[in-house]
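Bumping with the actual sequence this time:
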Amino acid sequence: MLCTRPFEKYSINAQIADPTPSTVWAHNGTMPTSTLKRLLWPQRLHSQLVLMVSMSLLLALGLLGGYTASEQSSIALRGFESQAASLARSVAISSSNLILTESLDQVETLVLRSADFDEVLSLRVMDPDGGTLSHVARLRGQAPKLIFDLPKQRPQAPKDGLAHLTSDVANGVVTVWHPIKADKLIGWVRLDYNTLALQDLRARIWRNTLVVAVLTISLCAGLMAWLLRRPLSALIKAKEFAIELVNAGGRQIPFTPAPIEVIELNTALNQTSQLLLQQSLLIQDGLRQHRVHEAQLADQNKQLSAIFAMSRDGLVTFDDAGLIQFANPAFVTLTGLLPDQVIGQTQTSLDAHLRERAKAGSNFTGLDACFAHTDNAAAAEHTLLLPGSQAGVLTLRGQHSASNRFSRILYVCDVTKQHTLDHMKSEFLAMAAHELRTPMVSIFGFTELMIKRELSAEQRADMLGSIYRQSKSMIAILNELLDLARIEARRGQDFKLELVDLADVVQSVVADFKPPLGRDTPLVDASIVPMPVHVDTHKLQQAVLNVLSNAYKYSPDGGPVTVRYFVADAEQARYRFGVEIQDQGIGLSPEHLARLGERFFRADKSGNIPGTGLGVTIVKELIELMGGHMQVDSTLGKGTTVTLWL
């Protein structure tokens, strides 16, 4: 079954230029030649045919009229010349005897009578030397009048004594000189004859020609319009069908009586309609497949983009020319470079930027070392250390690609945490070994003495007391490690939360706390308002006890330890309560204060102050799991203030 749905994506209407001529003016205010031609010459075939036939008829009738006017004018001019010559000859013959008998009055009468014609302008009878014997002039529509010429007014007569005729067509005058002879030349007759009637004749001929031309062109135009109505109607239908050809859906033009050319055009359009339908179906099928592929590629691209955008590892690709064509956000974030310093840059430029970012003295090997020299060889990982208060550690590994989209890939991983954990693990092992070794050595030494030597009861009692104290120190270290492991594993799931008064919990801890020998008990300010908190009482006691113990531990030179209570402004319809523990001890530098709370971090690494570096970490974890936070303020050499907010 053929699909008859219109092919909506493409339309031939947008591809057919508007046939209506539009007036487009140039910048200088003149109309372009092409536009002027379109305005003067019609665009429709019917109008063109009518115009061409009309112009042909007008040209033919114009030539015919011109030829007729020329021939008629020539015939009329010859007639005027013949009349003028006959009149001049008649006057010459009639006046010869009168001149011989010197009957000048009769000559004047003869001239007046001969000039009584509308075409005569002037008639003269002269002696052989050109002296005027009689001169009559006549204006059109008036009677002839005698003209008395002055003696000096002597027209120049011909010298040969023969008759002469000249025609001035432009001025409409024929001039005739005819000799008067009686055995010899006895005078001249000069006749000026009017031929302006020729212009009237030409005007009548052209006027009649114009009337005939108008009638002929009108009849021919009407006849052509009548004869062309059926072929033009078929052409108009073919044009309309051609405009909607793409949306025709295989529709055919019905055949009607028309000229052979129109029938052939309709046949070609019908075949084109069928071909376009087939092509439309093929294109639609191709477009559907293309859309499916596009959707699949778009989905894959979204997945890859999401993976690359969310990946914590950096990724950089190089094209065949060695330029960076892609870098995911993680690479820019990890290296601290700007996007302009990465995209479109060369490997050499990127290598220079990474060397600038490398920590001083870290001995970065460069990008060339990250890529294997052969395509199949595996490249080794190389480390890049970044500067900062917490130095970042990146590993770089390059790989060649057989893809036609990129030639090499550079992977960058952030191993700062692993590096830090390894460093912390090493420090912890060294610290734990040091902290456990001291009591173990004491226990081992005292035990060996008790086994190998005879001791008095008093000595044995002292040694057993030392063994007990060292064992207690070891148990404390192991308990802290177990507490931290339990916190990480359970994340507060074993907490038994209840509503208690913060001041009551702190007071119970202070009451049971035994300060070091020679130190005063903590100074506790009384709470003036109830301080209800939703906590695990045992965990809160453990946190307060750790902070209180650190206050005494890190103030070895003495000084009071103060406990105060605070009430913060209400947040989300509930108040925040805090307990502050302040000492007058060694304090912390800004660098150490920034790292406070890191696992296994100890501000004092001399070993004079016992500890694992886990106490503050445990306090921070416990308070945060109960919905609070720890605030620490410290000044080096002046002491530290720790506030637990719940």
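The tokens above came from a reply further down the thread. The two ends are 77 Å apart (CA to CA).
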